[in-house]
Amino acid sequence: MLRDVDESDSYANLVLPPLLRDRGISGRDAAFATELAYGTLRLRGRYDAIIEICAARTLDKIEAPVLDLLRLGAHQLLGMRVPAHAAVSETVGLARERTGVGSGQFVNAVLRSVGRESLETWLERIGEVADPAGTDVVARLAVTESHPAWVARAMREALVGNGRSAEELGDLLRADNLAPQVTLVARPGLIRTGDLVEETRGAGTRGHWTPTAVVLSGGDPGVIPAVRDCRAGVQDEASQLVALALTVAPLLGESDSRWLDLCAGPGGKAALLGAVAHERGARLVANEVTPHRVRLVEHALAALPRDTIEEIRTGDGRIVGQDEPGSYDRVLVDAPCTGLGALRRRPEARWRRTPSDLAQLGTLQRELLTSALTAVRPGGVVAYVTCSPHLAETQLVIKDVLRKRADVEVIDARPAVRRIAGQNIPLGDRPDIQLWPHVHGTDAMHLTLLRRALEGTAVDEAV
Fold first, then answer.
1. Pick from 310, 428, 450: which is nearest to 376 by CA?
2. How many CA atoms, within 13 angstroms, populate the side-chain half-sphere of residue 173?
3. Which of 86, 142, 230, 317 could pair with 149 as two cysteines, CB 3.0-4.6 Å apart?
4. Which helix (H) or strand (E) holds 408?
5. Shared-domain flag, residues 141 and 228
6. Would you say 40 and 47 are in contact if contact means Cβ atoms under 8 Å apart?
7. Domain range for residue 94?
8. Shortest CA distance to 144 belongs to which of 120, 118, 165?
9. C-alpha angle with apex 93: 115 to 146, nearest 5 degrees?
10. For residues 404-440, b (16+ Cβ closer than 10 Å) or e, as one string?
């Protein structure tokens, strides 16, 4: 699986489940395999630093399949409750089978060296290598908490840029390394949250921030009847919260009958919006540029009444505003992004993304938001959402777009979020919303609400 993820740009959460099913692995064995695979991916940076010391050579001098085995062995030794002799012998046996006798001897020597020290000792040692002068806490945290240095620095900037302390960086990076619980969404009008809890047969409890969330303590969500027939779905609570906040954001004017999800794939937020739209007598258009993701949207929306879904279309969201100006009351822009806010669930993303991705994504994000602001009617609201806290994908996008739009204002998203989540949800002093795994226990989702001014109405430039 590690080779598939590395060589084909596959996602672990898409590769591993069918692999386990095909091999008939279930129960405790499946849980062990999942932790071994995901944990190794999450903590790869930490283990690579340790392996370099123990192997006395740089990683580029180690063949990729052998390095994968060393990472798996290191995680068993330092990150799981596997007896040292079992972790070493099993990994060495696998090395001999897959990569040859010589590599088995090398793996044996390296893993025995890894196992001679405790995790705490290793963290101190690799931290000193990364920060020999003891003056660069971000460099030290990047290697000990297994994040690329550029990601760690971007996270620090995001914390400060959202009014939080830079001292929280360690807690944030550690939260990224924790396996998240699976969260379900009970789609309103299709199933009640309490009924979904009952369908989990004791594995589910109500979520913390949204009335639609159910958190699973374990098990396969795919066996739950409501998930199978799309009355419910798997969806992080942050994703539920930002979608629901759009549905209660205040509009100007009477119309509230036509909603748009501009970037609807894979369909989770569109399904939630559609369910609420049905209860309110509105209709939803779900737009997605990629044909295979359109099929995912169609599946996610399958349980919704047909008269609620005006259209599921394949189209470029950047031209919707040009083609349909002023046509929608509420528009969601769930913009393509680096995904740095979902590193708990997509552990390979931190190693796959590079700073150069920001420029290409930034252009697309600005074009999509501009299109959405043209597609929404005067008095209507656009929700700009990213699953990334990076300032280049959030605040800077908003600032750049607003410079060219005298008819748009940012509205305070906090009342809408508190209407859904309650008054006790920790929010900052800014009108936009940034959620955090170490604060809210969710993905690091960003939300900005923007409203197009009514014709002849001045926009408050101070917002």
1. 450
2. 29
3. 142
4. strand 408-411
5. no
6. yes
7. 2-119
8. 120
9. 45
10. ebeebbbbebbebbeebbeeebebeebebbbbbbbbb
Report if residue 459 sits inside a domain: no
> Where do we find the tokens 């995680």?
75
Nearest Cα neighbor of 433 from 399, 386, 382 is: 386
63 and 146 inside one domain: no
* CATH code: domain of residue 399: 3.40.50.150
Which one, of 119, 134, 17, 109, lies nearest residue 76 by Cα? 119
Active site residue 54: no
Would you say residue 109 has pLDDT above 60? yes
Annotated binding site for S-adenosyl-L-methionine: 263-269, 288, 316, 334
Annotated binding residues: 263-269, 288, 316, 334
| pLDDT tens track for 198-214 | 999 999 999 999 999 99
Q: Which amino acid is at 426?
A: P
Domain membership of residue 462 (yes or no) is: no
Total domains present in the chain: 4
Three-state secondary-structure class, residue 145: coil
Q: Which of 119, 148, 163 is the last residue of a domain?
A: 119
Give bridge partners of residue 312 from the DSSP assignment. Answer: 286
Domain assignment present for residue 461? The answer is: no
Cα–Cα dist 10/348, whole Å: 9
Rg (the chain; Cα; Å): 24
CA-closest candidate to residue 246, choices 334, 310, 170? 334
pLDDT of residue 458: 62
User: CB-based contacts of 304: which residues, under 8 Å, 6+ apart?
Assistant: 187, 190, 271, 274, 275, 278
pLDDT in tens, 269-321: 999 999 999 999 999 999 999 999 999 999 999 999 999 999 999 999 999 99
Is 302 in contact with 274 (CB distance < 8 Å)?
A: no
CA 48 vs CA 39, 51, 77, 443: distances in Å? 13, 5, 14, 26
Tell me which H or E stretch contains 114.
Answer: helix 101-114
Residue 463 lies in a domain: no
pLDDT band at 11 (very low <50, low <70, confident <90, very high): low
Question: Do 299 and 444 fall within a single domain?
Answer: yes
pTM of the predicted model as reported, rounded to 2 decimal places? 0.94
Check whether residue 75 and residue 197 sit in a common domain: no
Report which residue type is found at 66: V
